[in-house]
């Protein structure tokens, strides 16, 4: 019998979300649990199991033919393991094997959360219709993924496109990854806020010292806040230009909480990109906000599963 659904899991440090998804990207059945991120690895897996149990109880479950997982990273798709920075109980955790067992032996496709977001934006979002795209999540960290030649390219381990750890400041601040001057060390939300505070910006009466609060101050004309976003935009532009020069992308899509700053980020980003993306084949590069929002992880995990299933059975791949 033709099966037309996949199961999608979006696993992060805050929540574990699941859905049954059809070939048009519609989320037909949803389930969600908080991530017990500070508890044992087995307890985290129990929460994943509860989400899957809710989905398997649906009358539609029988039509699901594969599972796609978008997980916080690092992930190792070749080994089927995950080691999310913000879930310390999972180190080289055999997630693919455990999920397949809990899902009755269905095949499982694992990608990093940046790659999942990329798959979603290319299938149904801001990168739809573009054959060559870089999609980025700029939030607590900075991640990303690549579509090249019309196909999602997660790489052997599922981490290709991880632009957050390209070094754009050769002698810059040490990054927790071990390198220096990484895009993430400059452009992530916490680092935008840190730089503003170091420059003398102060939160309002509510005490909100987040990047979103810095964005509000920048919109109001606070020079230190503006400068912190300009520095973040410069780092993003350098990373995007390097990627475009290396693999020839047509569009860069930026999502995540920091993208919510709007023109405070995108105006200096587009300006900086003109200074870095100078060769003829990268000058027409488009930069645009992501549109898939909170469902990007689930839709992208589903897209990865559909693409893997299509490759396995010779069917026409879903456009991802």
From TrEMBL:
InterPro entries: ATPase_NBD, ROK, ROK_cs. GO terms for molecular function: kinase activity. It comes from the Bacteria. It holds the Pfam family ROK. This is Glucokinase. Coiled coil: none annotated. Keywords: Kinase, Transferase. PANTHER family: N-ACETYLMANNOSAMINE KINASE (PTHR18964:SF169), ROK (REPRESSOR, ORF, KINASE) FAMILY (PTHR18964). Belongs to the ROK (NagC/XylR) family.
